Amino acid sequence: MVQPKQIPECYRVDLIDTLIQEQQETPPPGVERVLVQSIEQEEEGEDAETNLS
């Protein structure tokens, strides 16, 4: 939702949109760490299932 910059008030909307977009692109380290741990645990479970013999 980037508005054409015709009047100064539009700059505020653009700044807020830019900040929100930056936050969405870079997840906080805690979330990233939890996701990686979850994937690793799932992979370990799959390895255990395939090595039953």
Strand content: under 5%
Number of strands: 0
| Oligomeric state | single chain
* Shape, per Cα inertia axes: rod-shaped
Query: Number of folding domains?
Result: 1
Largest β-sheet summary: none
Radius of gyration: 21 Å
Terminal residue distance: 56 Å
Tally the helices: what do you get? 2
Percentage of residues assigned to helices:
over 70%
Q: Spans of 5+ residues with little confidence (pLDDT < 50)?
A: none
Q: Kindly state the mean pLDDT as a whole number?
A: 75
Structural class, please? mainly alpha
Topology as a string of helices (H) and strands (E): HH
Kindly describe this structure:
With 53 residues, this protein is mainly alpha-helical. It has one domain (9-50). It has helices spanning 9-25, 29-50. The longest helix has 22 residues, at 29-50. The model has no long low-confidence stretch (mean pLDDT 75).
Features:
single chain; 53 residues; mainly alpha; 2 helices; rod-shaped
How would you summarize the topology of this molecule?
Elements: H1 9-25, H2 29-50
How is this structure best summarized?
This protein has 53 residues and is mainly α. The protein has two helices and no strands.
